[in-house]
Amino acid sequence: MTRFKKYILMLMKDEHGGVCGAIVKGVLRIVSWGYLAVVKIIDKAYKNGIKRKYKARVPVVSVGNLTLGGTGKTPFAVFLADFFLSRGKKPAVLTRGYGRDESVMLKNEMPLVSVYVGGDRVLSARRAVEDGRDLLILDDGFSHRRIERDLNILMIDGVNFFGNRAVFPRGVLREPVSAIERADMFVLTKVDSASRARIEEIRSFLEKNALGKPVVRARHKPSCLTDVTGAAYSLSSLKGKRISVVSGIGDPDYFAFLLREEGAKIVSRHDYIDHHEYTQRDVDEIYLASVSKKTENVIMTAKDYVKIKKLDLSRMEEKIFILNITIDVTSGKEILVDRLNRIITG
């Protein structure tokens, strides 16, 4: 099933050709028409007031994207939570969650922030307010329309942009590009690996279509390495190391890019689809590759480690390190801070 999902994802990104691929793309295109029709019906229902939105008693900030994963919305939600904590607020993060493991990862990264996991985020919002939280952050909330928000932040992938501009399942868009009109501001991510031409393309697009709304630029910044015990190590320890890279995220290429930027030598990559559920067979394959390639470390994301650690890692446990990542705003930080402060002051 994983290979099939990977194949379909490659077709959605136009990374696979051939006659068979063309036929499957045609089928995906037809299915996408039905999906798009449903999205448009829901959009009109909200615009015409047929579907009503829930208004929380506290400010709400939403972080999300139009594409299927890979923009860094969750690290940015962590960034926002830290900001509001520093301003004396008691924020809560509301996330749909993709299994218990990922909610555990979020709670590990934000020990001072309440994380509410569940498909019914209106219920989560009510619980958070009842528990005394005075600000709500919607993780992956752009396409979630049921809750009104005071600030709607749209993350845009600086490398892949909007893919082929087709909606799911023919492309990676959750909604048509016209949905950007709902955003209050944009955060352009991965600017450190995007080409100048791509950045200019996005800048020009937003200039024409975003009606002067602010654009902030950001990158993912590695902060440190941690081993399975939680002990921290300097990033300089990666320099010159032969490593295996393990990732089940939306953009494994960017994760590999960050490791190369720290001077690591990648000799083995194990790229899985986003939200991959690891099996013991995966662990065994990673271990055997690390032996045959003579790797010194096996590096993965915190998101992946929290899933894989429940399996038997005994043969390579001493090699496993987690790359911890934060969001670094490289341009427009003063604009972002001003908008966030306005949320606090009302």
Average pLDDT, rounded to a whole number, is: 93
Please mark out the parts with pLDDT under 50 across 5 or more consecutive residues, or reply none: none
- Derived structural class: alpha/beta
Global Rg: 21 Å
The structural domain count equals 2
Number of helices: 10
Helix content percent band:
25-40%
Q: Can you say what the CATH homologous superfamily of the largest domain is? A: P-loop containing nucleotide triphosphate hydrolases
Terminal CA distance reads 49 Å
Biggest β-sheet: count, sense, barrel? 12 strands, mixed
Q: In the CATH classification, which architecture of the largest domain applies?
A: 3-Layer(aba) Sandwich
Summarize the topology:
Elements: H1 2-12, H2 18-47, E1 60-65, H3 73-86, E2 91-95, H4 100-109, E3 114-117, H5 121-130, E4 135-139, E5 151-157, E6 185-189, H6 196-209, E7 215-227, E8 232-233, E9 242-247, H7 252-261, E10 265-271, H8 280-292, E11 297-301, H9 302-308, E12 320-331, H10 333-345
Parallel strand pairs: 1-4, 1-5, 2-3, 2-4, 5-6, 6-7, 9-10, 9-11, 11-12
Antiparallel strand pairs: 7-8, 7-12
Helix pairs in contact: 4-9
